[in-house]
């Protein structure tokens, strides 16, 4: 696959929703250890609402309109800390892809980078704070460094995100609910870093199919 159009992005969102649903209990367990145990449920509810919104057919217009629809839906259904962050991420993807109907590997990397910048702007988290930012920062770096085709770019991003999500375990949380635990947050992986890895892994799978 050379370029992603809305048709392929829809396959990604369906795949992501299925993977989030399948891993909902795992995400809730991770969140139960250092938060309030609802991250899997929040994400599953949000993506189910997105599928409902999209099931009628293609969103009219460019990729901007498509991502905006997803962002608005996540914003109004996920809740908690992750809702505004993932909602804002997709809204930013929408802003940055306005006027475009397809994306190649390098432009996808730049788009995800813009989405990450929005998450950092809203949440004020930096790498090392034990949040989804820890998975997304190395993922964006790897995607940009990989260059080339969509399969290579997205695989690099997914692998970096997964490794980084695993590596959040020894960190002490400095943002979000988990930060209330102080040192007791050490020794558990961050749930949001794991959901971010799941989203990028599903993207890599559809780009390699
Ligand atoms: P809540 O904590 O409100 O119950 P969730 O459980 O759905 O919300 O989401 C928790 C996840 O949100 C955390 O694992 C972390 O990755 C992410 N998160 C929380 N606060 C921030 C922040 N300020 N910046 C980035 N990510 C954050
Ligand atoms: Mg929670
Ligand atoms: Mg909550």
Low-confidence stretches: none
Distance between the termini: 8 Å
Q: Strand count, sense and closure of the main sheet? A: 2 strands, antiparallel
Number of domains: 1
**Number of helical runs?**
9
Give the class from helix and strand content and strand pairing.
Answer: mainly alpha
Order of helices and strands: EHHHHHEHHHH
Shape: globular
GO molecular function: glycerone kinase activity
Protein name: Dihydroxyacetone kinase subunit L
InterPro entries: DhaK_L_YcgS, DhaL_dom, DhaL_dom_sf, Dihydroxyacetone_Kinase
Organism: Telmatospirillum siberiense
Explained architecture:
Helix 1 runs antiparallel to helix 3 (39-54) and helix 2 runs antiparallel to helix 9. The mean pLDDT is 97. The longest helix is centred in the middle third of the chain and has 19 residues, at 105-123. This protein is an all-alpha fold. The protein has a two-stranded antiparallel sheet. The protein has a single domain (4-208), classed as Serine Threonine Protein Phosphatase 5, Tetratricopeptide repeat (Alpha Horseshoe), CATH 1.25.40.340. Helix content is 68%, strand content 2%. The chain has nine helices and two strands. Bound molecules: adenosine-5'-diphosphate (ADP) and magnesium ion (MG) (2 copies). One magnesium ion is lined by residues 36, 38, 80.
């Amino acid at each position: 696959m050379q370029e992603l159009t809305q048709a392929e992005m829809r396959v990604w969102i369906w795949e992501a929703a299925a993977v989030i649903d399948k891993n909902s209990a795992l995400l809730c367990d991770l969140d139960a250890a250092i938060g309030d145990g609802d991250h899997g449920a929040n994400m599953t509810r949000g993506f189910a609402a997105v599928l409902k919104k999209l099931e009628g057919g293609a969103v009219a217009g460019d990729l901007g309109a498509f991502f905006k629809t997803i962002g608005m839906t996540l914003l109004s259904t996920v809740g908690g800390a992750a809702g505004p962050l993932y909602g804002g991420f997709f809204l930013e993807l929408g802003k940055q892809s306005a006027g475009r109907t397809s994306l190649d590997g390098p432009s996808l990397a730049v788009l995800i980078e813009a989405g990450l910048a929005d998450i950092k702007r809203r949440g004020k988290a930096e790498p090392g704070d034990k949040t989804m930012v820890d998975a997304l920062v190395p993922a964006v770096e790897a995607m940009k460094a990989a260059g080339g085709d969509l399969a290579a770019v997205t695989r690099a991003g997914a692998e970096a995100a997964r490794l980084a999500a695993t590596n959040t375990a020894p960190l002490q949380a400095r943002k979000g609910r988990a930060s209330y635990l102080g040192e007791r947050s050490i020794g558990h992986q961050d749930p949001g870093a794991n959901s971010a890895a799941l989203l990028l892994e599903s993207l890599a799978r559809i780009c390699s199919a």
